[in-house]
Amino acid sequence: MKKSKMYLSGLFLIFSFVFIANIQSQIRNEFNLPDVMGYKVLKCDFHLHTIYSDGEVWPPLRVEEAWRQGLDVIALSDHIDENYIRNIMPENRNLPYTLAEPLAEKYGITLIKGGEISKADPPGHLNAIFLTDVESLNKKNYQDAVKAAVDQGAFVFWNHPGWKQPGFKSVWYLEQDTLYKKGWLKGIEVINGIYYDPIAHQWCIDKGLTMLADADAHLPTAYEFNLDRGEHRTMTLVLAKDYTIEAVKDALLNQRTILYYQNILIGEKKYLSPLFENSILIKNPNVTFKGRSTEYIFITNNSSMDYELESITDSDLLRFPTKLKLYAGTTTALEVRPKSRETTGERQITLVYKVKNLMILPEQFMTYELKIKGDFQPK
Ligand SMILES: [Zn+2]
Ligand SMILES: [Zn+2]
Asked: What is the pLDDT of residues 154-164, one digit of tens each?
């Protein structure tokens, strides 16, 4: 008896040690961006699958990976239609959200209930988010399904329009037009996974639709993006008042989004311009030259975004680097030198750069004017 008691307490000690030793801290990779026009920049993904349709992931894991990858908001949007649902699954399409919600609450991730209306092309696949009841969208006819979503106050957008189209060239079908004219279609995925769709980009601009960029992950996101090789996950940056569902919805309804994929930001110039300018700080825009002395302009990039710049005009007065990479969280010393000893007095110099990873229109990039005041003095 005594011996077995000792044995048991020994066993207890071993197990408690193992238990304590196994507790680990989790790490979140922060992706810091400055506020834009008084809005916070929320990192979001509105299109994700779980084992409840054709995904490979248990719903709470989507929350965990979102937190680790620096996201603030995710929507679980499993396929609603039968042909995508495994027959091992129960009939309740609200279950993925219900299972993930407690962990989202703990991690402070804003979790949105969604579903993917998955019909044959056209209309193809449509995401409905901010749902209250996913189950009621299980309708044969696409218009009935979308109407059920709209009746719940959902935001409906067209997923991967180029998918299954010859040459991935997106086609605006009568079905899209019907939804658009009813005011039910509010946005389009311009980026799905790692694919950028210039046609969808132009449609969003022309038709006043919201641009979205989603992972549409079926596997764990670490398998779909090479995160261990420095790549990042595709996401939609939402300019919102705060982290609430209402604020996210307000931003989506008012087209306040920026797309982030493969280290490129895509969005309207009115958002990208302040995002860039609020990311960087120029310590000394006024420089004094003595003869042809080399001087430095210090530019700090306080954001988590690497910016790639290339000059598009020359300067009569200065030699300067034509290529500039402002790495995240670093200060760059921009080397400048007068071209001639003959220049004298105070002069305004504008160096015009193209920011190669800030796209404002399909294949068109933002320009940035670096303004310097040079005081040219004799040696
Ligand atoms: Zn789809
Ligand atoms: Zn999908």
From this structure: 999 999 999 99
